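Holo prediction — 2-phosphoglycolic acid.
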Amino acid sequence: MLEIENFDEIIIANWKLYGSSSFIEEYLDQIKFYGSKSQGRCVIICPPSLYINQINYKNVFVGAQDCSAHIEGSYTGEISAKILKDIGCQFCIVGHSERRMLFNEDSQIVGKKILNCFQNNIIPIFCVGENLQQKKEKLTKDIIKEQIIKSLPNNANKKNIIIAYEPVWAIGSGLTPDLDEISKIHMFIKDNILKDKNIKILYGGSVKANNCKDILNLEGVDGLLVGGASLNIDEFNKIIGT
Ligand code: PGA
């Protein structure tokens, strides 16, 4: 399996339900990333699953945005971790807040998806984060702890999983927590929740070219999960080139 622990930073593009063949052609024509595939900065593009095989660019990895909680069977419309692996996918976002909210995914389902990724040597990018109400009620740490404890398998470690802290209220809103709040939450997860403190934790939620550097420099932040800004190649080039 890919040795993710050797990378200094991991930057992920989450395209959500956007993109087309022509968009991908233009994007790959314009992307500028000269990193290596084994150390330094790791860039992963997560397009809608049908386009996974079209993301063919030197030094850039490809990931899925979700996988089925099932392994195989009569589940019309689903895509399994096994199929993702078969088509060459090495990463898969799991438990994104949009899946939790819009598709009713609870921590048990998220946990199953993580296990399915493990079984197929796919590295899950496991998303956690509080919503605005929970933040107002000062429940951020409790919520994150509960999400992690309920879904993270015992054998999770720095080699087989990446965590993404994404405050739900920061996603697509243009708002981000204060820098030191981001760092504190990341350190809280490492120091108080995880058995393996070297599991990489990315920050996601309104990351842009103009705030990525400050966030990346924070203690406890090992990379970024970028949504909206990853759809604009000029903006994304600035982020991966920072
Ligand atoms: P955003 O999305 O960068 O558009 O806020 C992040 C995400 O949903 O992963």
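READOUT: The pocket of 2-phosphoglycolic acid is lined by residues 14, 166, 171-172, 204-207, 225-229 (CB under 6 Å).
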